[in-house]
Amino acid sequence: MAELELLKGSSELKKEIEFETQLRHLLTEYGFSLKDIINVLDPQRVRRAPAVVEKAPRRTRQLKVYKNPHNGERIETKGGNHRLLKEWKAEHGADVVESWLAN
Fold it and tell me: Does this model's pTM top 0.85?
C-alpha cells in the first residue's frame, strides 16, 4: 500500500496520467483510435505483422460399408458415430465388427 501511495504522489505518474487523459480526449474528439496513432508513429508495424496461414482443407472421409453376417444388414457410414454400428460393436465387439468391413 505504501508503494501505491508513493506512486499516487509521483509527479511523473501524474504527468503520464494527464497526458493519457488528454490524448484519449483528442482521439475521441477527432474520431481516431489508438491503432491510428500507432500506425502514424510506426507505419512499418503493419508490414511486420505475421501472415495469416490458411489451413489445408480437411480430407474427406472414406465411405465404409459394413455387412452383418448374422442377419445380412448393411451399414454405409463415413464415421464411427453411427447408431446401429455402435450397437453392433457393443454386442459383438469392435474387432469383430471391423472384420465385417465390406470394402
Answer: no
